[in-house]
Amino acid sequence: MKTINYQTSGTCSRQIDIEVNDDNTVASVKFHGGCNGNTQGISMLVKGMKVDDVINRLQGITCGNKSTSCPDQLAQALRNTLV
């Protein structure tokens, strides 16, 4: 299992802790900060998904007038550390 501690940028969340199984599926995601209900929902939805699928679905999502979002930061964390 691989553990990622990613410092976010441009979002309300400050950090994302991610665990990825050896089969390249997401084991768990924990956001620090951000909109609690939304980040919990994202975490539950991506659990068990292939890393590439998470990246493809979440990259490029924006939040309001920001150029990124918590889901986009999750995609960036996975892309920048695993792909």
Summarize the topology.
Blueprint: E1 2-7, E2 13-20, E3 26-33, H1 36-46, H2 51-58, H3 70-82
Antiparallel strand pairs: 1-2, 2-3
Helix pairs in contact: 2-3
Q: What can you tell me about this protein's structure?
A:
By secondary structure, this protein is α+β, with helices and mostly antiparallel strands. The chain has helices at residues 36-46, 51-58, 70-82, and strands at 2-7, 13-20, 26-33. A 3-stranded antiparallel sheet has the order 1-2-3. The longest helix is centred in the C-terminal third of the chain and has 13 residues, at 70-82. The model has no long low-confidence stretch (mean pLDDT 97).
Main features:
39% helix, 83 residues, globular, single chain, alpha+beta, 3-stranded antiparallel beta sheet
Radius of gyration from the alpha-carbon trace, in angstroms: 11 Å
Categorize the overall geometry: globular
Q: Could you tell me the number of beta strands?
A: 3
Sketch the major β-sheet. Answer: 3 strands, antiparallel
Strand content: 25-35%
Average pLDDT reading:
97
Q: In what order do the strands lie side by side in the largest sheet?
A: 1-2-3
